[in-house]
Amino acid sequence: MDRTQKLINFDPEIAQAINQELNRIESTLNLIASENYASPAVMEASGSVMTNKYAEGYPKKRYYGGCQYVDVAEDLARDRVLKLFDLNPEQYHANVQPHSGAQANMAAFFALLEPGDTILGMDLAAGGHLTHGYKINFSGKFFKAASYGVDPVTERLNYDEILRLAQEHKPKLIIAGASAYSRVIDFKKFKEIADAVGALLMVDMAHIAGLVAAKVHPAPFEYADVVTSTTHKTLRGPRGGLIICKASLAQAIDKSVMPGTQGGPLMHHIAAKAVAFKEAQDASFTIYQQNIITNAAAMAEAFIRKGYRIVSGGTDNHLMVIDLRSKNISGKDAELALIKAGICLNKNCIPNDPAKPLITSGIRLGTPAITTRGFTPKEVAIVVDLIDRVLTDPQNDELLEKVKVEVDGLCKLFPVYTHNSFVTSTSSSLKSLEG
Ligand SMILES: *Cc1c(COP(=O)(O)O)cnc(C)c1O
Questions:
Q1: Residues near ligand 1 with C-beta < 6 Å?
Q2: Among the CATH numbers 3.40.640.10, 3.90.1170.20, 3.30.2290.10, 3.30.420.10, which is that of 45-279?
Q3: Which residue of 59, 127, 228, 434 has the fewest C-beta atoms within 10 A of its own C-beta?
Q4: How do residues 71-100 score in pLDDT, each as one tens digit?
Q5: Quick one: pLDDT at residue 12?
Q6: What residues are annotated to the active site?
């Protein structure tokens, strides 16, 4: 069955949009720190017939009949994710049903808290995520949200200050984790703070899950009561979320996902998560994560050599935020000029940003996607050069056109999907799903 051909015949508008999106992916340098490219095997599972099945409940405890094969997928996903993070299934429990990272956080909050309880999370403007207490998000509407930022001098987490805020606000839950923080997060220190004020600890490792799986970032599991994540960032799976908790919280978490905050699970995505967790157990995935870090370090150094200021002075992980004030360009204008040259990234607040959130003084860059493409520090140096040329003369359309030609050349040398640059071939990973 050639589904693509059918789509072209039946719905040429959508078929064309998909094809254009593929061309955009192939011809754009993607530095968005939260994005990656799922493998053909992952996409085959997520585009599969499992999209049809209603499977409210959990394996072998469903509200609908006919779940025997989707049960296989969900059992494999749960087992594999615990194995991926070296967790003993007698001590830890995984829920792979959250539709997204935000849904995982919502389910975790409602499992651990009552509406009106106090939470302490990282400020969105300092690099946190909106689900950690932002005032117009559910997390800030249903809960009393206090926040911590970064130290004004070091631009790193200041654990003494977080302890002071915890003592002041007495939260029931402390949330560690970020979307735009380039340094190692010390989960042990967070646990000490939580214990000092009698709070629970949740770690949201959405951005760094792949790094944690490959042991290039410390793991949160021995310290956190609940760990949430996305599956599509450094972990490089399908778009989705997951929750891992101590076994004692298994029932509360499962109930909070369904029926608490979701209905039927997306079984095709759960199958695809299982495929991704299998890919992530391959030795090549560890090397991939190490390369992400090597490339990010090389990128930060190259920018520093060209006179850019990196927030906190550099990076330990897959991303960095650059303060553009010395270059006299806003984050918004930088983003707009760079996309004309085929370079995709996002404007980002710097700590205590004097500019408005839709303007910003910074940009956030990450290396997960270009590393999937196969970039090494050599190509990273070229990318930094291209970005610098654009930011030095952002109104010069002729220059932007020239840079775009160079971007095209680089992209053609490192295709995403036309060569199989992924660890697991489609057929072998799906065979294992079929048992
Ligand atoms: C991306 C992210 C999320 C949300 O994930 P979605 O899948 O976009 O809902 C949650 N927490 C953190 C820290 C994130 O970076």
A1: 34, 100-102, 105, 129, 131, 177-179, 204, 206-207, 230, 241
A2: 3.40.640.10
A3: 434
A4: 999 999 999 999 999 999 999 999 999 999
A5: 92
A6: 54, 56, 204, 230, 233, 239
